[in-house]
Amino acid sequence: MRTALLRCAFPLVKTHGFTRQTLSLAALALPDSPHSEPLSEFAVSALFGPGLEARRTLINAWLDEGIEQMGGDAIQSGDMSVRDALKGRLKWNEPVLEKLPEAFAVLSTVDTPIPFPIHVTPALAHVAKVAHQACVLSGDTSVGTSWYARRASVAAVYAAAELHQLTSPTSAYQFLESLLESSASAGDVISDVGQYADYIWRSWRAIGKSKGLL
To answer: Which end of the chain is more exposed for a tag (fewer CB within 10 A), N or C?
Structure first.
């Protein structure tokens, strides 16, 4: 039931955001046995976690679904490239683009009394998953250090393209193309994994603060 509710919640994100309300309303859209009323706050907490944890559960499930949806029609044709895959992932963002800064801000916030604590793991995990899936779909056969270098390069490209999409969505695909043309130099900027993850996290935070979310 938890998985079914999350899937029913995805279409609601566009109007209600990555919120506990979205999870509550998802019960009304269950395909086999829709509820007559939204889930109570107690039920949302029991199924998805208390407070922000429920929102993070929804955000992470939506991100995982985005990984599954990468590539679109190119998958069916068997003609897949990293470019196709990354464009497909950016396309997945489009219906909820205005909700993503807040979602990323929620992911980057730790439940602790320390103000604005650094939590870089979600940032790094997100782009790493996208990069790995893009390489898999494109039939990448790299091994050894080349396997890691290829994914690091693709992750750097996608991270930059997605951050650009959040602030300048109309030119996101052109920006992605320009990065892919110089992906070797994009990979060169990653000299330290922690520094790279911190860069993404700080960018998420900056976008969130600029929109008054933090």
So the answer is: N
